[in-house]
Amino acid sequence: MLNIQEQLAALLERIDRPGDFYATGTLDMHPPRLRVEGIGTIALPLLPVQAQQLIGVAEQAPYGRGSETLVDTEVRRTWQIDAAQLSLEGQRWQDDLATLLPCIAEGLGVTGQVEAELYKLLIYDAGSFFVRHRDTEKCPGMFATLVMILPSEFSGGELIVQHQDREVRLDLRRDDPAAIAYAAFYADCRHQVLPITDGCRLALIYNLVRRDGGPLPQAPDHDSARTELTRLLSLWSERPDQGQARGEGQGGHQDQANWPRKLVLPLEYAYTEAELGFRALKAIDATLAAVVRDAAAASECDLHLAMLSVQETGWAEYTGYSRWGDDLEVGEVDERVQELHSWRRPDGRSSAMGALPFTDHELCPPSMLEEIADAEAEFHEATGNAGASFERQYQCAALVLWPRRQRSAVLAAGGLDVSLPRLSELIGDADASAGADAEILAEARQLAQAICAGWPASDHSAYFASRNGKSARFLSALHRLGDTRTTVDFIAKVAAAGGYSAQDNVPVLAILDELPAEHAGAILSSLITGNAQRDPSACAELLAKVLAGKPELTGETVKPAAMVLLDGLPIAPPARSYYGAPEKMTPELVTATLAAFQHLDGALDTASVNPLAQQALERFLTHPETYDPDQILIPAARAVQTGEAPLAANTPLAEQLKDAMIALLRQRIAEALEPPADWRRPAKLKCQCTHCQELSRFLESPSDSTWRLKAGQQARDHVSHQIRTAQCDLDLTTDKRGRPYTLVCTKNQASYAKRLRQRAADSDNLHALLDPNGTGDTA
């Protein structure tokens, strides 16, 4: 038994005739010079005064009932002007019309020469309409009707066209004054024009005819394929479990549990990302999309149009040498990336979803992408230790389906770049709907739960998802949804387990602000306990803001977490970890920690113990190698004095920090500052090779100002590296006269210049701390 992918592909191959019962679109055309007998030239876009003039020379449009032609404004309220009273001038108009007709013929699935005969000009003013009806054959060879809406301002008046059990609703109103909308449909289609609610709709009506004497074209009939496709998709959509298929069962039969999570149907024609859209599909692609769209809607499946991309990289092999250089061919593929991106919806809107991976198993048929081997490869010659390589890319448009009931699982499995934008779209749609649409909200909550369940499991991935702002986006979405259960689950499962950073604090604060104090305290404690050792800055900021905004929190509730944070304040500079570069110590860490602990100390009985804030301050002050005074402590003290930090300036703790920094600055300013008395410079080289020993002797010499090392590049690079590592007071140049080159080292006063800059900065900082308000009082 064939699997669903092969069944679907075989079914769609039976649709060998393009076209549908209608064709519609918009053209930027050159409007004609429209002359009406009794009025003259009509301005386009249509002016209201000329709309009244047209009605003045028009007649009530009749309708046909059997062999009779009747006028009844309860059936048709429209004004008409016969073609004999019209004149359409302008060569560009005729050229545009000639260009349009083949496109319409293709859209209707018609072959051969098609002509358009002007029939009438219809004027629909406010209240005008035409009930459901069929057109009669008005001339030999007529098989369809073409409606062209000339530039005019109106609202309402949608055209509804029905063929058998299918129906489309076409809005032919265009805001662009240079755009002309058109719709063509077979003459046996029932259609109606809904009432005009405002303005005036100006429509040219053409009869589409074919004069070759053969049978008249009939609307393409894909009903049997549509019915079978609906049955197949319904079977796929309604199964209890989709699973993640990887193959077939015994005997070639594919179990339903192994059916793919989504289906990908590559299209035939080439499209660019800029032009991609359901309305831009060509010939057989448009027909397939129409059939699949109807079947998807009937079987409760989501349908999207997307770009399918396959990228391969790997090793190339030499096959010989020709006059044009080495011949290369594709060898082994090292990496293959398959993605769907640039999403479009059937209603024409784009989607913010990111790239969604897919497998060959989800393709219809699964072997479809074997032609990637025919894609042109770009080769790269071997360089250094790397061999020859290649890369190639294959891209096409594709229809993508998944069961609506499995939408959340599909999107969540696609990764955060897909699921988070969709979640934001759903919440935005719910907010925009009157009273927040309950169905949209339910879907958003279901997707949020699926995202939470499928969040990156490893500490490394979860941490970087937070650093990249994805955790913050998700928490913000959960807050907007009011989904407390999923929020608490996510914080416990992800954030409190290491997937947390300072970016998460804004949504976390908003969430905690709406929770009872006891519940908020428990969540706060779990976050700090799980992250204090790794990111004390983020934890301190969160603790300070929560305690400042929630005074009802008892000290005993969060004291255990605060003790963990105190223990997490590093004594030695943090080393590079599994997560990458260590978190930098910042002034904000100091001020937030002191502010948070000061709040907490005020809520605790600290008479008999050393307050937490005091312990933290002592740690900051006694480990300058970790909490650099110039980069961390002095900026923290200045931020407190200017009110830019959460720690209040008029507290004893703030005064201690300020006094300690003032004492340090005064001590440094009091030190003697003299330029070097001779050419002796600090020599703290770690290497003791022959060249570095010579360099050390040169640095210690009080009389030598220049040293020249004539050596190979490897030796010169080694010495240069040692000089930069030890920050020696040397300027380096390379004398390229002769071989080998010569490294020229000239002593400078870089250390003295640095101390001068430090002295100026110390003076500025001291004045700022003594006189934060700029009053001139530095006593």
From TrEMBL:
UniProt cross-references to InterPro entries, sorted A to Z: Pro_4_hyd_alph_FE2OG_OXY (IPR044862)
Residues annotated as domain Prolyl 4-hydroxylase alpha subunit Fe(2+) 2OG dioxygenase: 120-206
One matching Pfam family: 2OG-FeII_Oxy_3
Protein name (database record): Prolyl 4-hydroxylase alpha subunit Fe(2+) 2OG dioxygenase domain-containing protein
Organism: Thiorhodovibrio frisius
